[in-house]
Amino acid sequence: MEELREAHLRYLLTIYEISLVTPDVSSASIAEQLNVRKPTVSAMLTCLMEKNLLIKQRYGKVYLTDEGFLSARNIYENVIFLMELFEQRRLPMTPQQSHEAAVAASLAVPGISFRRNAISETEDGK
Asked: What residue ranges do the domains of the chain occupy?
């Protein structure tokens, strides 16, 4: 499959995060979360459907496919890991700043599992 751009990944992550709160994700909730207009969301959802990363059902409900879910979950796990790391290091950040920084870092290297690499390095004594 063609490599996903940061915008694709941000939408997948947003859909995943919304789905943790409510099972029915809508275009409106995505637009609100990302602070973009609904036509922008609609265009991106069409693109993600073409890449088989999500399914859009009647009445605008959006669901991740297995592949979309796995990609989003990996990014989400990286975000959580980094936020925990920021907190452990007592970085002077608000929760919002911590989340934004963790998302930016996670989207920059989407194919890497930060937690798995941290565990491997610990086991290797690095």
From this structure: 6-68, 71-117
At residue 5, φ and ψ (nearest 5 deg) are -80, 165
Q: Determine the pLDDT at residue 123.
A: 53
The residue type at 31: A
Q: For residue range 70-113, list pLDDT tens digits in order.
A: 999 999 999 999 999 999 999 999 999 999 999 999 999 888 88
In the 8-state DSSP scheme, what is residue 52?
T
**Contact predicate 32/14, CB 8 Å:** no
Provide the residue count of the chain. Answer: 126
- Please report which confidence band the pLDDT of residue 58 belongs to, taking 50, 70 and 90 as the band edges: confident
CATH 3.40.50.150 fits 6-68, yes or no: no
Q: Is 34 exposed, middle or buried (0-12, 13-18, 19+ CB in 10 A)?
A: middle
42: CB partners within 8 A, 6+ apart: 27
